[in-house]
Amino acid sequence: MGVLSSLFGKKDKNMDAQEQKSVPETKRNTIKAPTFHLKGKPDINGLYPSELVMLAVAERYSITETQFSGYLTYTYEIANPLKMLKDLQSRGFLKIGSPIDVLPNLKLPELKELATALNTTVKGKKADIIAQLSGVDEETLGKFVKERSWKLTENGEKALKANPYIQYFLDKHNYNISEVGVDIWSVNEEFVKDPKRPYRDIIYRQLNNQMNKASIAFQKNPMSGTTNTHQYCECYRIMGLFVEEEKSYENASDLYFQYLFKRINIGAGLQLLINYQLFKNDKKYQADSIKRYYDDIQLYPFHKTEILRLLDELNITGDAIRNALITSFKRTGDSGIMSVEEATDFIILELSGDVDESRDLSYKLAKRAVKKLK
User: Which residues have a Cβ under 8 Å from the Cβ of 340 and sit 6 or more positions away?
Assistant: First the structure.
């Protein structure tokens, strides 16, 4: 039997009559083509993650819209947004909105022009003008507002309320969990199994699992490169920022500070030591590796912003900052190129803008570390 026949239940043109007869009649009749479906797992309403995403953003679009945001396709695999919207309408999750429903989608100049035509207040903020226009009877307003937008039905609102993780992925965050292998599809799969479980617990657990997975990977094979060590460290950063959203600032800062220490000693430090050993016959490369160590551990502007924001929320200054860093660094149980106290000095120098001193410190400690390899 040919490939086409085995995969799709179609007869191969090259299959002779005798070969066809050898297949039992009952078996030939039961072979079916594969059923294609959207990615992920459907909820109790039969809605897949991409459909729920489309439902969540539907009210931003008019019913005649043909140009949709690109992220709907490249992030959520929605190939035809308009077709999906119409399908959601046919299934009772969307309806065509009233003229009033269109108002929030109009720009301020358009609202002012409409307000002038209807003799309502044109002064104030956008919300003020919309409030005035909403008082106009629907029939009159409809004569001026020809466009219509999509509107959630009661069933549509219930569906989104039952899947709160969808809005999380549409909201903006100071981090990107997909960078470490946690995405809407993995969260969807766990959420469908237990819809009563808080979705943030699912996300945190998956972040922790990804961190453990990366840790096991580079411990089994230290020579595997930077992918696993980077993911391991980055998981700590993301978990810290994730917890920060819940206003648990002590836990958030502890995770973030551990990330800093691991970034210094595992993310960059381990790679320096490995490269130094691998290229023991290339003195120039070894020297460059020592200098490059600082480039790999320096604090970038986004690091400083995140650290200072956490410190501000903790409301600590001076020696309290040093003590907080030391406490978290010790909790990691890690060791490497920098000790707890040395890493603390490095971070404080970086935060203070004393870059020359922090660079010199990193260079000095890197040279000390590689000497122990000889």
Answer: 261, 326, 329, 330
Cα 167 to the chain's mean position, in Å? Answer: 12
> CA-to-CA distance for 273 and 266, rounded, in angstroms?
10
Contact between 63 and 105 under an 8 Å Cβ cutoff? The reply is: no
Q: How far is 6 from 320, CA to CA, in rounded Å?
A: 69
Annotate 96-133 with DSSP letters as a single string: EPPHHHHGGGS-HHHHHHHHHHTT----S-HHHHHHHH
Task: Read off the pLDDT of each residue in 65-78 and give the average, rounded to a whole number.
Answer: 94
In tens, the pLDDT along 345-364 reads 999 999 999 999 999 999 99
CA 371 – CA 356 distance, rounded (Å)? 23
Task: Please tell me the distance from the alpha carbon of residue 217 to that of residue 214, in angstroms, as a whole number.
Answer: 5
The tokens 């039952």 sit on which residue? 162
Alpha carbon separation from 85 to 36, 74, 79, 109, 156 (Å, rounded): 19, 17, 12, 28, 12
Q: Using CA atoms, how far apart are residues 347 and 304, in angstroms rounded to an integer?
A: 10
Q: How far is CA 43 from the centre of its chain?
A: 21
Whole-model pTM: value is 0.82
Residues 116 and 52: their CA atoms lie apart, in Å, by: 38
| φ, ψ dihedrals at 62, nearest 5° | -80, 160
Q: Is residue 296 a contact partner of residue 267, using CB atoms and an 8 Å limit?
A: yes
